[in-house]
Design a protein that fits this description.
With 490 residues, the protein is an all-alpha fold. The chain has helices at residues 8-26, 34-58, 67-85, 95-112, 117-140, 145-170, 177-194, 201-216, 235-254, 264-287, 293-305, 323-342, 352-370, 377-391, 410-428, 433-464, and strands at 218-219, 222-223, 394-395, 398-399.
Length: 490
């Protein structure tokens, strides 16, 4: 749809904000500051208000979404990822990117028809939690009305799509549920095999035999109920699923060693994205900045937009073999992104290194406790030193950012710290009084070493510059992270 004349200035402003967010996302030298995100958020709210006023005046309700809507969606998704990055997971703006990803997954499930009630349950639970967050912010007036209304519309759209999926399963008879669940499992196993560049046809044979056994249960094309006297409802779902499984088997056996050449670049790109996302699932606590997910989302959007009537086509408009493989990889990538968003913790990027360090110390202490109670002062010394260094970063019981603000996640980090102290006290309970004095001496030595090290750094800094900048309360430890490539068209 063309952009109306009165919305052009708003489009320009939105593009500028998107560019600011992209530039801020790329800056790996400093942690993302909550004040910067809040400033951009305030600007977006003003633009949304102006857009609502402009459309109320024009009163063109029949017009579809235009470039202003798509740009606003980009801005909101990026901004939502920034809220996750700074640890504000339980605020309304942080829900936007999660709702957008859930809607995408629901759309793919509806398209494929491969799901059970157990597959939909996690989405129901997540939408319920997000609804509580939005309702709470609305009641408390924590965010402007424009934002809570926008998120509530997004949530309602997801709930409507989810209810449609549940409704489609409600027609399935109880007698046919076990067959349906087994066919869904076989369908997923076949899709995983088909996604490989060179699928092993030997892996397909057992699944093919099982499909034939399921097919043999039909009489006159119908699955019968107990005793064979009735035809339970839900036949169309099972028959369609069974035929699709046989179609995938045929696609795998008919394929050569690789996917069709027109689809090869897309397949390679999706395989690469999936491998990167699976690696992030394992290392996200140490390497993920939530805004990195934006690059993957853009790439997947571009690949999805290449489909014509749900299929990828070549230059001549034909549909090459290997469609199931690409669809599986695409949906798998969206699922991994949603998993990473859901696993994001309400801890700011700035405090995450401390939280990770404390969790590591806590795991070490628990492992040491499992092996007995005979601990020497030297056994406890490294833990005393690590906790003292972290304790020394607090001021009035709080951790501060370099700009003097208080990052999100204070309660979680302090709880980890207290747990570590409690474990050390438990270990010290088995150490004699003489040993306790040695431990105290070791701690004093550790404190002196830290103080001397800080003094030497201050002297070196003052020698390098007449006016040394104030040292940040939380050390600027840049987490080693994988920086995903910028999205490129396939």
């Amino acid at each position: 749809m063309p952009v109306p004349q009165n919305e052009l200035p708003l489009l320009e402003s939105l593009v500028n904000i998107r560019n600011r967010l992209t530039a801020l996302k790329k800056d790996r030298q400093e942690y993302i500051k909550a004040s910067d995100v809040q400033s951009i958020y305030t600007s977006v709210i003003k633009l949304v208000s102006k857009l609502n006023d402009a459309r109320d005046e024009s009163n063109d309700e029949d017009e579809g979404p235009n470039r202003v809507d798509t740009t606003l969606d980009d801005v909101m998704q990026l901004l939502s990822l920034f809220f996750l990055t700074i640890g504000k997971n339980k605020e309304t703006p942080a829900a936007y990117c999660q709702l957008a990803t859930i809607r995408q997954l629901i759309s793919h499930l509806n398209e494929s028809g491969i799901y059970t009630e157990s597959d939909l349950k996690p989405f129901q639970d997540r939408l319920s939690k997000l609804k509580e967050i939005i309702a709470k912010d609305t009641e408390q007036g924590k965010h402007p009305e424009q934002m809570t209304k926008l998120l509530m519309r997004k949530l309602t759209d997801c709930e409507r799509g989810l209810n449609d999926l549940l409704q489609s399963l409600s027609v399935l008879s109880v007698e046919l549920v076990p067959i349906h669940q087994r066919l869904v499992t076989i369908r997923r196993q076949l899709a995983a095999i088909a996604s490989k560049a060179k699928p092993a046809k030997a892996e397909v044979k057992p699944l093919q035999e099982e499909l034939r056994k399921v097919d043999a249960k039909r009489q006159d094309g119908k699955f019968l109920g107990p005793g064979g006297s009735s035809v339970p409802p839900g036949q169309a779902i099972l028959v369609g699923l069974l035929e699709e499984c046989f179609e995938i088997v045929q696609d795998i056996t008919a394929r050569q060693d690789d996917v069709a050449m027109p689809l090869k670049p897309i397949h390679d790109r999706l395989t690469e994205i999936r491998a990167q996302l699976e690696r992030l699932v394992l290392t996200h606590r140490w390497t993920l900045r939530e805004t990195d997910l934006w690059n993957y989302q853009l790439s997947l959007q571009e690949i999805d937009a290449m489909r014509v009537n749900g299929k990828w086509v070549d230059s001549e408009g034909n549909q090459p073999d290997g469609q199931f493989a690409l669809l599986y990889l695409l949906r798998r990538c969206h699922g991994l992104i949603y998993r990473l968003m859901s696993s994001s913790e309400p801890i700011s990027e700035e405090l995450m290194p401390l939280a990770n360090k404390l969790q590591t110390v806590k795991k070490c202490l628990n492992e040491v406790l499992k092996h007995g109670n005979d601990f020497s002062p030297r056994d406890l010394y490294p833990y005393h030193l690590a906790l003292y260094q972290i304790d020394n970063l607090r001021k009035d019981g709080k951790f501060y950012s370099s700009d003097g603000s208080i990052p999100e996640g204070q309660a979680i980090v302090n709880a980890h710290l207290e747990e570590c102290h409690a474990l050390i006290e438990q270990m010290q309970a088995g150490v004699g009084s003489d040993s306790e004095e040695e431990v105290a001496d070791d701690v004093d030595e550790a404190e002196s070493a830290v103080i001397e090290e800080a003094a030497e750094e201050a002297e070196e800094a003052s020698a390098a510059s007449d006016v040394a900048p104030p040292a940040p309360a939380v050390p600027a430890v840049v987490r080693p992270s994988y920086v995903p490539p910028e999205p490129s068209r396939v």
